[in-house]
């Protein structure tokens, strides 16, 4: 069996994920396509991930792609997580993942409405959704608070987890808006405040056209394998959130090449992707929490020493801000209270690496300006460095 070692995997990662300086992109769409999709649970991550891979980092370019020409779109999709991707990728992700997630979101909300015991049902929800869309139309864009002020039904309170220790009373506005967004009937627009804010305005949108789910899964799997291969069946299943049969069928349709990994596992690459790639120039990167280069595989042993995990991950398995050297995760970074970027190396990488990491931190500080970044998911090392 053809063998692709861990060093080759790290070389591929650096080049294909546009982290090597000579391979950086000139457009935000090219960045998103290179990694299939950017994690968007934390609003700042999209900007930090994109700018790390641009030859000329530019917050304005990311904002234009998200809110003006809408060449990037957000979908609640893989693993019930919010991702940002190009319009070329979105239809396949919508059919292969997002529609199923949207259906589950709707059923979850309907269950909570029924459990409340006040006669709120599917018909009530449909009416509130229609009122919300109608209220949004003349405004063009509106915050959740503005929509709640315009639609009294959005101010309805329900009891969730009744009869349990977690019982609490909550408003339905955020849940109704989440369901509308998951269905593709509204989308996030320019937020209140800076690019780091998660207080989004909302604007009307059109759902993506339906297509064949099996074909959509094949397209997503092929794109993912080009960017993340060699990788295992388990990696693809984890990243997509598909079932075993769906994952295997998608891989079989691609007819990938089988390879042996250093871990002893069987990996896959797209057909014809066996050539050895030459090492690039030395490179360093400071990537944000949940960056796709750190969240692309279930098994990250080729890039992440096991003794670094406790410092860099939270209890739910979310990775925090990371420092990279030639395709490996060697430390973490944070922003101090005065805005200075600080980092700690968990591996001894030598003076050349330390100097390049410092240069990359300076490059990052320059385009960030006065912005302040606090990851949504705090990790032990990030908290220590912030303090």
From TrEMBL:
The keyword DNA-binding applies. The lineage of its organism: Bacteria, Bacillati, Actinomycetota, Actinomycetes, Kitasatosporales. Pfam families: AlkZ-like. This is Winged helix DNA-binding domain-containing protein. Keywords: DNA-binding. It comes from Streptomyces glycanivorans. It comes from the Bacteria. The keyword DNA-binding applies. One of its GO terms (molecular function) is DNA binding.
